[in-house]
Write a structure and sequence with these properties.
The protein is α/β, with parallel strands linked by helices. It is built from five helices and seven strands. It has a single domain, classed as 3-Layer(aba) Sandwich (Rossmann fold). The protein is globular.
């Protein structure tokens, strides 16, 4: 079973992501901080996927994109943000994010990205 780490500082969204992904059959670990997210991404067993908010209260989410992509094997990242500027999208994708999703979004869009990203990694 795939393990997904969610780093989202908005508590209601974090809980929503957790519940939704668990119902879809994934194991989920979630946190609201960059620091705790870094610990979860580096912990064993390694996550299959990181879902990450770009703006976090204790730092820039791009740091986690770089950290996840530097692991061996690299952990794919889906970046979500309420500030979907062209510059933010370009920065996230340049850092190695597999996908960029603007808030608000429908749950089905996130699930499609999760499934597509995980499928791409396993092939």
């Amino acid at each position: 079973m795939n393990r997904i780490v969610v780093v989202e500082d908005e508590p209601d969204l974090r809980v929503t992501y957790e519940r939704f992904l668990r119902r879809a059959g994934y194991r989920v670990a979630a946190t609201g901080s960059r620091e705790e997210g870094a610990k979860l991404v580096g912990a064993a067993p390694r996550p299959s996927l990181l879902i990450l908010d770009l703006r976090l209260p204790d730092g820039d989410g791009l740091d986690l994109v770089h950290a996840a992509r530097a692991l061996n094997p690299p952990v794919p990242v889906i970046v979500v943000t309420a500030f979907p500027t062209k510059a933010a999208r370009e920065a996230a994708l340049a850092a190695g994010a597999a996908a960029f999703l603007a808030k608000p979004f429908v749950a089905a869009a996130l699930l499609r990205l999760v499934r597509g990203t995980l499928e791409h990694v396993t092939n």
